[in-house]
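Hey L., structure's done. Input below.
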Amino acid sequence: MQIRKATKDDHEAIWGITEQVIATCESLVFAPDTSRERMLAFWCNRKKHVYVAVINDKLVGTFFIADNQPGMGAHVANAGYMTDPSSEGQGIGYQMGEFSIQEARRLGYKSMQFNIVLKSNERAVRLWQRLGFEIVGEVPEIFDHPSKGLINGYVMWQRL
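Output:
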């Protein structure tokens, strides 16, 4: 698998993954009817470092690294990840996570924080714990799942 910086040419494939991921309402906070333009404006924002994972010329995942907060909080990285649902179970999320931790260090961040990892997304919670993240807080009823109701979310963090 190759991980590289995303280009504008990747936007259509990023949207293809995004559209599938948000349709499930299982990991991202975006509503299933979020427009392509709105989602790409958020994900591919010029304030973010955006990457893609590619296997055999197929884009199978994407992630970004950005300041978690402006100013005095800019030493903490934040990130978001998506894997093509048809490519799940191949270790892509782990490899993107591992790469993003190394890249965040290279970019000068001192720690990395995820502001919302859904408690119900046990696979993601285990992945981030395997990569060294700790659960440092739990926010009640942070996500309104269409069939499961209000779900708690974790704040996860690690020193880089």
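The CA atoms of residues 71 and 87 lie 37 Å apart. The chain has a mean pLDDT of 94.

-- N.
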